[in-house]
Specification:
mainly alpha
Length: 251
């Protein structure tokens, strides 16, 4: 029984890593993806892993004497490479669709288009600039806040998946499905626990800030497209990470 539980734990973590990163991982058979909604509990672990990899590179650059802003840019670039910039892409598509379309169908069509518009470009520039600025402010204190925000932001994604229906009848959101309450709250609890362990009492404010950003994205997605898409999940990760980093910087 213990072996079976460990095997399932390992499969869920691997599945979450395949879904959330572009790391060279072992191939998973098609039936494994039927558990995609169940594996959301592991999202914060993958976020922490992404943060650790980026933070490790940042620590080497910091030890080599690079200035904080340069180290911050390297960390942001590493995160984008590890994830295939899928979250940033989701933010850009969401910004284009939500503010470029006049109705739900037009917004969804814009979000599916591979081209990027003015709203998307501005969203990316502002998000990356803010991320680098916040990283730079936090780096002299260590890389734990970076790891915490990476984990916490990915814990917010299942909350959106649980709270909203898929906006399309096809696509990533539809194929993953709606996670059960147990897995959703397990992700949230794990993300919160990692944040508090890494940042102490200040983590509580970061959790509240991330939750507020998550609720804002959820409400906006409900108004604009009546549900969520993979792009909305990417936007959720990016914006909740920025909210958590801003809270930790302010404290």
């Amino acid at each position: 029984m213990k072996t079976d539980l460990f095997s399932q734990f390992a499969r869920d973590v691997q599945l979450a890593a395949v879904l959330l990163t572009r790391l060279p991982l072992p191939h998973l058979p098609a039936p494994a993806f039927q558990r995609a909604a169940h594996a959301v509990w592991a999202y914060p672990l993958i976020g922490a892993g992404v943060g650790c990899l980026a933070g490790g590179l940042g620590a080497l650059a910091w030890a080599a004497g690079l200035p904080a802003l340069a180290v911050a840019a390297l960390c942001a670039a590493a995160m984008a490479l590890i994830t295939g910039a899928m979250h940033e892409d989701g933010l850009a598509d969401t910004a284009d669709g939500f503010w470029g379309g006049w109705d739900i169908q037009a917004r969804l069509k814009i979000m599916k288009d591979s081209h990027i518009g003015t709203y998307g470009v501005l969203a990316l520039i502002l998000a990356v600039a803010l991320k680098c600025a916040l990283f730079a402010a936090l780096i002299p204190q260590g890389f734990a806040p970076l790891i915490a925000a990476a984990a916490l932001s990915r814990a917010m994604m299942p909350l959106v998946m649980r709270g909203l229906p898929p906006a399309r009848s096809t696509g990533l959101a539809q194929s993953v499905g709606r996670p059960a309450a147990a897995q959703t709250w397990a992700a949230a609890g794990l993300g919160a626990a990692l944040t508090l362990a890494l940042t102490g009492p200040a983590g509580l404010v970061a959790i509240l800030a991330a939750l507020a950003a998550c609720l804002a994205v959820t409400h906006l997605a409900r108004l604009k497209i009546g549900g969520y898409t993979g792009d909305v999940l990417g936007a959720t990760q990016t914006l909740t990470e920025l909210a958590a980093l801003a809270a930790l910087t302010a404290l």
